[in-house]
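Materials and Methods. Structural model of Carboxypeptidase Q. The 482-residue sequence of Carboxypeptidase Q from Cynoglossus semilaevis was retrieved and submitted for structure prediction as follows.
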Amino acid sequence: MMSSCKRRLCFLSFLSLLSSLCDCHPHVSRMVGARAASNQTARKVSHIAEEVAGYTDVAKQIIDLAVYGAAQNRSYRRLADFTDTVGNRVSGSQNLEMAIKYMYKAMTQDGLDVHLEPVKIPHWVRGKESAEMISPRVKKLAILGLGSSVGTPPEGIESEVLVVQSFEELKKRSSEAVGKIVVFNQPFVSYGLTVAYRAFGASEAAKVGAVATLIRSITPFSINSPHTGWQDYQDGVKQIPTACITVEDAELMWRMAQRGQKIVVRLTMEAKTLPDADSFNTVAEIKGWQHPEQVVLLSGHLDSWDVGQGAMDDGGGAMISWEALSLIKDLGLRPRRTLRTVLWTGEEQGGVGAQQYFNLHKVNLSNFDLVMESDLGTFTPVALQFTGSDSARKVMEEVVQLLAPINTTKLEAHGEGTDISPWMQAGVPAASLHVADSRYFWFHHSEGDTMTVQNPQDMNLCSALWAVVAYVVADLEKMLDR
Ligand SMILES: *[C@@H]1O[C@H](CO)[C@@H](O)[C@H](O)[C@H]1NC(C)=O
Ligand SMILES: *[C@@H]1O[C@H](CO)[C@@H](O)[C@H](O)[C@H]1NC(C)=O
Ligand SMILES: *[C@@H]1O[C@H](CO)[C@@H](O)[C@H](O)[C@H]1NC(C)=O
Ligand SMILES: *[C@@H]1O[C@H](CO)[C@@H](O)[C@H](O)[C@H]1NC(C)=O
Ligand SMILES: [Zn+2]
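The predicted structure was written out as tokens:
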């Protein structure tokens, strides 16, 4: 391997030799026992594979603690206590304020360095809402109004329904839409594609003269419960009330319409948008001993929708991002660079807290080594997703080998996440957690998102993966190449 040593690597090995000769930091000698990787031999190794392999023991210690040891089920218990106590926490709500206070206190008591960073977030309130089919028979429709929707007049909107399966069909039948409530019964293809109906359905229907929209929930599986989410009104288009209905009711009305039955629905919604609210991103750190200004960022969002418990979206991601720091601290480890957990606020409204964090901190862009986000559930982990340069990918390929004891040594092509995307676009290496998420959209943004869908062992594995990756990257001699 050394024979293929590129000039750059040789230069680095020279630098690391120098740093090993001048190891003057006070923490080092105290921590040598716990940190196999910081020994003198490891320092001189130029090849990244060998440098990373030096962390095999410490990775095992982290995994043992999280999966089999004293920290077993801790992230699950923390998530249960948090979501049982606070409940759901939509942007602008008192519950969200409570959630931030709860986490500030809990992470401070855990011995981490915690602070809050103020941001402004949207404040939409649902109010009372209901929908009823009046004709051809009377039937209550379960609905959830969509974030940012306007309300109806107090007496509601009662109108005939036009059922369509796609935006194309709506265009073709635009003359039939005037004055009607448009029901979208689009089939679920994937969340990424199908969510366009939730996001843009209201404005598309308003353009052809509809008075309200009811949209089939964006889910591959249903037991007759509606799923909410954010929606976007297009500038210059009339804002009409919009809500999601269940898959079952969307299909019911589609079948009725196919038979030529005339459907009439009454929709009542009190939804309104208040002035932006004050909130905070919650930040907890273990300061790096050598390069405190350089950062590996771990994250999940603390806000949720105003239904269920927000356990899966994204309480789990927030808790494993805290747990990772706890595991590292409990083992007496302290990496070269700062490990920073950020629990975002206002994610569900389009990464609002995260965007303000980026705007404030981008002056230090070059000091962000890796940004990590978990926001697709904390079920059984299957891989780490990564976006970065080829050279950074080579390093990460080695890092995930340390996860062999939990069988998650796969590095996949693309990191993703609403909250880290500004950093990714600016070229910062990014990683996200890929879990066995086939059930994620069953519960997403619905009353079904509760602790009951979480599993302690899965969360142990997610926490271990998160902690190993963050710790090792933060402790390598060199930041990841851009
Ligand atoms: C020091 O690091 C080398 C290279 O990674 C490793 O083989 C060795 O076991 C480590 N020694 C100690 C005492 O941890
Ligand atoms: C962790 O949870 C699993 C599954 O519920 C259970 O079998 C195990 O006893 C728990 N361990 C601890 C330490 O609570
Ligand atoms: C940027 O980094 C410097 C050096 O670590 C730090 O003092 C400063 O507070 C950082 N600025 C922001 C906005 O994070
Ligand atoms: C990893 O896979 C091995 C072999 O299939 C299995 O024995 C072990 O229990 C797995 N470990 C975890 C944490 O899933
Ligand atoms: Zn989320």
